[in-house]
Give the backbone structure.
Amino acid sequence: MYDPADPALRVNPWPFYQRLRDEAPVLLTTPTAADAEDFYVLSRYDDVAMALRDKKRFSSHIRRGDFLDLPIMVNRDAPDHTRLRRITNRALGPRVLGPLTEWVQQVVDGLVGELLGMPQVEFVEQFTTALPLRVVGGMLGVPLERKAEIQRWSEAALELAAVVGGTDPDLVPGFFEDFMALVDFIDVLATERVGCPHRGDILSDLVSREAAGEVSHDEVVGLGWNYIAAGQDTTMNLIGGGMHMLLTDPLLAERLTAEPENTDDFMEEYLRLHSPTQFVLRRVNEDVELHGVVMPAGSFVHLLVGSANRDPRMFPDPDVFDLDRPNSGEHLAFGAGAHFCPGTALGRLIAGLAFRALYPHLSRLSLDPERPPRLRTRPGAYGIEHMGLLVSHDTPALAH
């Protein structure tokens, strides 16, 4: 039985994924939540990639007409998705990021400096969550005085996605209240900008587009909270997990410190091996047959990105981290097709600058045995939830 909320499966799903790929590449599953519908599970790379790209047969508008029918890109098909995607590309696309690189570097350097000034640090709280929140929050125009609350609310948005996928809401107590607090927070910020001069941030731009009739108010709010939550998801787990890998693999750390130009390859291979988003959801528009199994029109489908990225049919020796893997960039951690993550370039920029800034100081950092790394078990993104580090103040830094 496949239960994405099973704590054991959440920390080590890889053996189960292998069984699915080999024995049941299309699996019909009954969820644990009493009122949730049965769903199919796809686990092989070719099948997951096909479903992500086939917008004719697989719909992203998975909830319709209920309170979870959210006006956000991941829950919309064309033409609404196309319209919202175009607006998002203007806000987060590569052309926007060039002028922001120096500022992002300053944010990174400031956090690294704070980290190095402490004798010990909770790295996830101090760095991996703080960095994307400061960057994305700054771009959006969100005041960060309530950063602890914003972080909790962002996690609730990811937990909401798990509930939409069939997870029992009782396993994530308080998620809906926290999620609505995030919605209300963005709603207030957006309303404050109505009729006011442009503040030079993304939220002001969205409000101006609402005034021009390009988006509704609900869509402005949905885009706002979605940017924050999505910005936290992949980037924070990439930085946290990547840092753990660097601190436990001295040869890898030595190589990347000497060859920082390989950082992009490092990030792509890490995301292939440890996809923060383990599954995405689709609904079948028409009968689809795969491997002798017919998924009837209207069926709910889990696309196991985490399994696809470890499919040996696509990636030889898939459970091995290989910095020189020639096709690591073909992973599906950012999705594929029309719904390829629009924040990919920003996430890569933030994480890449972070790793390059940390390389020279790796010899001063070590895992705290009193606070060992702990993976997240609550439904949501896959990644390290807590990781204590010790900071040495007398060990020379690695040379550039």
In short: The chain has one domain: 7-391. Residues 7-391 form a domain with the Cytochrome p450 fold (CATH 1.10.630.10).
